[in-house]
Design goal:
Elements lengths: L4 E5 L6 H11 L10 E6 L4 H7 L6 E4 L16 H6 L4 E4 L2 H6 L4 H13 L3 E6 L3 H8 L4 H8 L5 H4 L3 E4 L13 H19 L1 H6 L2 E4 L7 H5 L6 E4 L6 H8 L2
Parallel strand pairs: 1-2, 1-8, 2-3, 3-4, 4-5, 5-6, 6-7, 7-8
Amino acid sequence: MRVPIIAGNWKMHKTVAESVDFVKKVKDQLPPAKQLETALAGPTLSLVSMKEAAAGSPLKIAAENCYYKNEGAYTGETSPYALYQAGIHHVILGHSERRKYFHETDEIVNKKIKAALADHLCPIVCCDDTMGRRTAGKKVHWVVNQILYDAKGLSSDEIRHVTIAYEPSWAIGTGQSADPNEAEEGCYLIRQTIAYMYGNDVADDVRILYGGSVTTSNINDLMSSQDIDGVLVGGASLDPETFLKLVNH
């Protein structure tokens, strides 16, 4: 039985003080962890303070990125081992903004996934879909290729610890969300790809999320879809009242 998850991705927003204040406002109003897993991904500078503020609550704190090495001369990068030692549970990898602005390839994302798993982090791996390919009639089928490359070399046990987020870049931050049928189609194709690679039993264990202009208006339809196990929320997760409405939908 897959436990659904709602995760907020703040991106480069909020100071340490603002992050802690947010956590304090929401931590006592969240559903039980057995019913719904809740997570917030904040800027690296805020993670330890957020973790301390969330103590005793169901809220898990996630990182927005990490490198594929634990240490070394990699100025400005974040060690997955250091994240684990700080008590961080999840890390977002391969977000479309990382791929676009920082030129992350599937090969790099694959290395990061393996490094995160080796350090006991649970990766939330994002895969994209572009409006250009959709209007060309290819719909979301090309997303299968990203999953094949990003998951290359992972064992059945490892992929079970990976959460995959279907995030069409044309829907991120635009207010133009995929309708529930489009979102379900993307998540269904991802699950079928995992089944092709690892078998149906493994595919049934992998959680698949939708992300891209998730709001209080579409959360119920998205969460009721068969192959959507939760959502990765951007802008709507920046306000504590809105975030609580999403997790208590």
